[in-house]
Amino acid sequence: MRIFYSYRKALFPHCGITVPIKRKWVAQRYAQGNTVIVYPVKSLRDYFSINNVGVLAEVLKVELAGNMYLLSLKGLKRVKILKRQGVWNCQYAEIDQTQTIKTEIAEKIRKKAQELIFLINVDESDKLIHLLNYISDGAQLSDFIANYFILDYDERIELLNTIDVKQRITKIIAILSELITGIKKKRENEIHEKENIPG
Fold first, then answer.
1. CB atoms near residue 175 (< 10 Å)
2. Quick one: what percent of the chain has pLDDT higher than 70?
């Protein structure tokens, strides 16, 4: 299977990303409908030590945009690279994510994500809440939330590499709680500063 090395971008199963490709010969390796292994890299060392989890993905489209190409990918399943064949190809094994998650655990992470959405109030808030309510599978829900709400690259890689779904949900709840606390404190400080401005 062909590998796509995704520089500082992590793709999660059931989610999509679009990545820029500067070199034509690299873009020409991929075509709509192909499946590839998306493997995240941050430094030169990551190209040589294939220790992280990758994601089996479908190529949705490859298009020229100005002086670069844009590669759109949809994540399908977590995989482990077993053996690399040269630089661009590998053998892999799918990682089983079938795990029964109690309803109350799924609801806890769902409500925490909704709380963050209400706080940040972005243009797509209604759409995100609708999608959160639509997803019932615990593994898929955790990946959706990690993809859309966790922005720090290292945290995203840690979550991608957390195979146990319950552990992943626990980590995501902790990260979301920290984000929510930070936003609330920032707003409280802003209100306090406004109240103390001499008028």
1. 21
2. 98
